[in-house]
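BUG-221 | component: ligand-complex export | severity: low

The export step for norvaline jobs runs without errors, but we want the raw record kept on the ticket for reference. Input record follows.
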Amino acid sequence: MAKTLSRYVDGIVVRTFGQDIVLELAKYADIPVINGLSDLSHPCQALSDIFTIKERLGRLKGVTLAYVGDGNNVCNSLMYAAAKTGMNLKIATPKRFGPNREIYEDTLDIAKKTGATINLSMMQERQSKTVMLFILMFWASMGKEKETWKRKILFGKFQVNKALISLAKPSVMIMHCLPAHRGQEITNEALDSRNSIVFDQAENRLHVQKAILIRLLGGYK
Ligand code: NVA
């Protein structure tokens, strides 16, 4: 059946939990399979996030960004995006909530060729002075909602708020893949501030997902 999918559809976007499900589907399908989100990775989010950064700053290489929150699928894919484009990514997560170790090591290898840097830390304040952008992730990712109460305690310090922004450059920008949890990973003051570009970022998901479809379906070379 999978080998004849092309008789019915031109491509599949799969949003699921296990990365193995995405890989298995891609292995048997005779059409493009796009990872719309898995537990391990979220390449569509990362691609549109770097599009937003490029749109704002005109470049990616040498841009310094801090990722604050859970070292989850979004973080894993952002590491690849940063490593491949020569960005400096500083990741602040609580202990035991860091990104996938294999991906981290893989991105360090890629970074050697592009000049990117990828740093892991448990302190967001230490990272702030040099960053041009904060990228945030909520404390309890999709599928982890039952752990919310526990994570509120562990992630309490990993909040983007006025105090943290005041440590960064005045021009620092704030990105969040949304939906935001006001008062948890981000305060109203930060989310609604002039530094926040979250709605541009959300709009760009639409444009970049269309670009991915065009590219994979053969409409644009
Ligand atoms: N806005 C994102 C959240 C990912 C965790 C999405 O739904 O793709």
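Assignee comment: Attached the raw record above. The CA atoms of residues 86 and 116 lie 4 Å apart.
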